[in-house]
Amino acid sequence: SFNTCINCHDQFSSRSALMSTGWVVAGNSAQSQLIKALRHQAGADPMPRNQGALPESTIQQIENWINQGAQ
CA of 64: how far to CAs of 4, 8, 31, 51, 70, in Å? Predict the structure, then answer.
């Protein structure tokens, strides 16, 4: 769940901050650093830290949100 994110990131980790830093590339989850981190891909700091990857269904929800424009 997204509560996992809140454990390290507060509500001030805004959409605009994610977009301006390239962590989220609206319309393109494959280019989004966030998805690379959630999938624990090489070259990305894994999220959540010190835990296993999120369930695939949760990652897919986030991918869908990004691919639909991250609104």
Answer: 18, 23, 13, 23, 8
Say if residues 32 and 66 touch (Cβ distance below 8 Å): yes
Cβ-contact 33, 71 below 8 angstroms:
no
Q: What share of the chain is helix, strand, coil (3-state, %, to 5)?
A: 45, 0, 55
Token digits for 3?
A: 């509560």
Query: The pTM is what?
Result: 0.82
Query: How far is 33 from 37, CA to CA, in rounded Å?
Result: 6
* Cα separation, 16 vs 53, whole angstroms: 25
**pLDDT tens-digit readout, 6-62:** 677 765 567 777 888 888 999 999 999 999 999 999 888 898 888 888 999 999 999
